[in-house]
Write a structure and sequence with these properties.
The structure is a homotetramer.
Chain A lengths: L12 E5 L16 H15 L4 H6 L3 E11 L8 E12 L2 E10 L5 E12 L10 H10 L5
Antiparallel strand pairs in A: 1-3, 2-5, 3-4, 4-5
């Protein structure tokens, strides 16, 4: 299989610029912005692999965030180009877990690592099982244990 | 005189603290936060006068913002207490206009003045007429022409 | 000791309202807002105990966030009153750990639990030891192991 | 001259995607996000024309926002691609005025028009004259009266 071994390196990434509005008075990107970047990275990861989050939602499914972990390694500054690498590490009908690496493009320095856990919910916010239509492609893209 | 002297001064205000996350690397509150404060002030103005924005929305009506004006007078800093004074100056079935004064509580200095124009919309986002149930109380609270 | 036993329950809390701008299209407060609320709760916890974050910063010290954990338990909605309870559970010269409980005031339901780890840094962003002037009061307020 | 006549159409633009975090419970991008997009567009406009906002700040100059105007024409939705077109319409030593058009890329529909007025300030926040080093290139790129 072509993707075995270094599968995660070929996952689609997102590149974004740190916005001025995202800085705080310490002169760095505020820590609450990283979950927003991870979310944007996750959406691009899905798009790059042929999965549309808009289509998930059109099926009446939200992937509500049930847990968030972040480890901040180096500050990100205004105008830095940041690469958000996303990986799906758990894909079950009631739980998805994504992991992220945020890297400054100019010097490849690691800015942060993080994870989000998601629970599929229906429009009323109740937890539901992800239907096979969506569970199967997610499971096929899952890369546990790297 | 309709306004009985200083009517607008007795309108309900909101006091809020500038959050660290709201600062930017210039060391002041970022200019994009002011519309958020104005919105919060507007919601408290409504609540204080017996109008609930949740109830407006429960009737399938949103007050979509169609225009925004802001004049920044002095910087707001982390942890400043800011008073948001809100006034309704136009109340028609298809248009509401609110004006705002943001004042630093510690020294009464004027931080900003602003305005928002709102168009009543239905759940699909289409403009609609505000029903009498809501237009009448808004019109009764309107203080044009200061 | 007067505060032994239920010490943490008497720690200063912050009450805040969920802002409209903080909601997302799922109709709930977006998960990236919770770190902002936790930060605001931490600042009020400090103020309530006689510690000013502005004074910490005036001494050239920032408490940079090095890790963040959040577990989302129930959705928060626009206009909900949320109580942010903050507790300091580790206070060492190079590391502070705070834990948080976010509770909806109207029905006491648990919205989220979280934690932040902080590293004292100097104005250039380099890790430093917290001087005794600040370490001592933090240590005195620390409530490990509840 | 190639750029005469329709000069402004060749100004550098920014394309961005509406982030999920930028939506609100009306299902559209919240109105407070537009100033953030305009700022990001302005930074890219500068970069595309050989001006670096980081270099402006490195010279101890901030372009503080003193006024903001926005007219919202159509809603922007999650995942929409938005083009931010920026134009400098006034360039004086104590005042710059930028105007913006935000257009949805998929159907060319106008989302919003806006403007920001900027006052050059020194690191203490005091208004200053823009030195010739910066005023001249800004003035050369100014397109009043289109």
């Amino acid at each position: 299989m072509a993707r075995a071994g270094n599968a995660s390196f070929s996952d689609p990434t997102l590149q974004l610029r740190v916005r001025f509005a995202e800085t705080d008075q310490m002169g760095v990107a505020h820590h609450s912005v990283y979950p927003v970047w991870m979310e944007a990275g996750r959406v691009e990861w899905m798009r790059g692999l042929g999965l549309s989050y808009i289509e998930v939602e059109a099926d009446g499914i939200s992937l509500a965030v049930s847990a968030l972990e972040l480890s901040y390694r180096a500050a990100a500054h205004f105008d830095d180009l940041i690469t958000v690498a996303t990986r799906l590490v758990t894909a079950r009908s009631r739980l998805l877990r994504f992991e992220y690496r945020l890297v400054r493009a100019s010097d490849d320095s690691l800015i942060a690592t993080g994870a989000t856990v998601h629970v599929p919910t229906d429009p009323s916010g109740r937890a539901m099982r992800l239907p096979a239509k969506w569970l199967e492609p997610f499971a096929a893209l899952c890369r546990p244990g790297d």
